[in-house]
Amino acid sequence: MHEVDMTKCLLLSMQEWRQQHGSSNPIVNVVHLQVGDFTCVEPAQLVTTWDVAVRGTWLEGASLRIEAIPLVGRCVICSSTYSPRPDVAYRSPCCDHPMEEIVRGRELRIRSVDYILQPSAPAVGPSLVPS
Ligand SMILES: [Zn+2]
Description:
By secondary structure, the protein is an alpha+beta fold. The chain has helices spanning 2-20, 43-53, and strands at 26-36, 63-69, 72-74, 81-82, 101-104, 108-117.
């Protein structure tokens, strides 16, 4: 269910993104998404949900590519950063302090969008024939 809500948020963000392009009607090929390891989002699940959600919409055919961001914590005792591990309850390896600060790993954002602009209809008219 989490992924379904995430997908809805993504679609809203993409809708806003499209509006910034005004009438130019971008065709989206790839949406690059950063997902932190600490967001509880399953990347494969999110891709599946996305593929279903965009079917029949202006985003049909656009694929979601996910870049995983590893979790990084900062120890509030000694200020060092570390890679928290679930098997030690995310405690800092230096001071064994519970994780209180997360530096990275909670990201869920669109990093970039690959798209092309639909070419405006070519002006069709009588070719100029010199008389
Ligand atoms: Zn420490």
